[in-house]
Every structure is written in C-alpha cells, then in structure tokens.
Design goal:
CATH topology: TIM Barrel
Number of helices: 8
Distance between the termini: 38 Å
Helix content: 40-55%
CATH architecture: Alpha-Beta Barrel
Number of strands: 6
Radius of gyration: 16 Å
Shape: globular
CATH class: Alpha Beta
Number of domains: 1
Order of helices and strands: HEHEHHEHEHEHEH
Length: 179
C-alpha cells in the first residue's frame, strides 16, 4: 500500500484498499488491524466488506459494532479517511440491502457500495436505485461491477450512483467523446 501512496504522491489519484475481502467474514479485530494499517500507510479511502453472514442473520448489533470499530480504528490514524461499506448486494434480499444502508448511515461511513466484483452480481440499476432511496440524497452511493459501456454507466448514474467502479473507464470516456 505505501508503494502506491508514494508513487501517486504528486497526482490527484486517490489510493483505496479493501478491508475484509471477499465476503467480510474476517473477525472484527482483523478488520480493525487492516484498516489501521491502511491508514498508517497513507491510503485515502477504505472499502470495508460488511459481514455477509451477519447481514443474512439480521445481526444489527454485530454489524454496527464491526463498522464502528473499523471506522474508529482508521480515523484514529487519519481523520479524513473516506469509508465505503460494501454490501455485496448479489447475495442479499431487499431487506438485507436496506439493513446494510441503515448500518452505513448509522455508523458514520461515507458511502454504501453494491459489490466488490467477487460476488454473483455487479451493478444493477434497481439495486442502485434502492440504495439511493434508502440512504437519501446526501449520502454517497457507489456502483461497481460489470460496468463496461456508456449506456450502463449513465443508467447507474441516473439511478443515483455518485461514483462508478469500473476497469473500463477509458473506453467509456471514449464512447462519451464519440457521441
């Protein structure tokens, strides 16, 4: 991580890392260590995978404790670190997606994100619309996974995404320029 921070030091590019990849099943303590180390290394943003098992069980106490401790651990080192919670919506029911939004907004995260790219589904317009409605207009929503063309990108932005995560950003921007 610190190599990326050093290499990008004089650029506007932000460095982000994921905590709890791929399914969020790491212990709370392990996630806190990951988040603190990332902050010490100088990362600008942390994407934390919510514990999918706890989401499926509706364990709000565990989810809030986990999220509070990870955010606190990172922000003890770096106050301005941005935190996104990943819900991996492809595994979740609508109620579980809403629970993830409740945790994100209640625990002081900055964004809710739909996927890591590991799960069974990437960014789906209906999911992004649901996340936006659940968190309201002043909370971040990031759509990620399977965004490969301009039409999909625009549909996700229209549905309420503030940010898009894609490995094809340059191609999408060329499509935009060609319009």
């Amino acid at each position: 991580m610190s190599l990326a921070v050093r290499e990008l030091e004089d650029s506007p590019v932000k460095v982000c890392t994921v905590v709890g990849f791929p399914l969020g099943a790491n212990t709370i303590e392990a996630k806190v260590v990951e988040a603190r180390q990332a902050a010490l290394d100088g990362t600008d943003e942390i994407d934390m995978v919510l514990n999918i098992g706890a989401l499926k069980e509706g364990d709000t106490k565990y989810l809030m404790s986990e999220t509070d401790k990870v955010i606190e651990g990172a922000r003890d080192i770096r106050r301005d670190i941005l935190v996104k919670l990943i819900a991996e919506t492809g595994f979740l029911t609508e109620n579980e997606k809403l629970l993830a939004c409740w945790v994100a907004t209640g625990a002081g995260a900055d964004y809710i994100k739909n996927a890591t790219g590991y799960g069974p589904a990437g960014a789906i317009v209906e999911d992004v619309r649901l996340l936006r409605q659940a968190v309201g207009p002043h909370f971040g929503v990031k759509a990620a996974g399977g965004i490969r063309d301009l039409e999909t990108a625009l549909a996700l932005l229209e549905a309420g995404a503030d940010r898009l995560g894609t490995s094809t950003g340059a191609a999408i921007m060329r499509e935009w320029e060609d319009q």
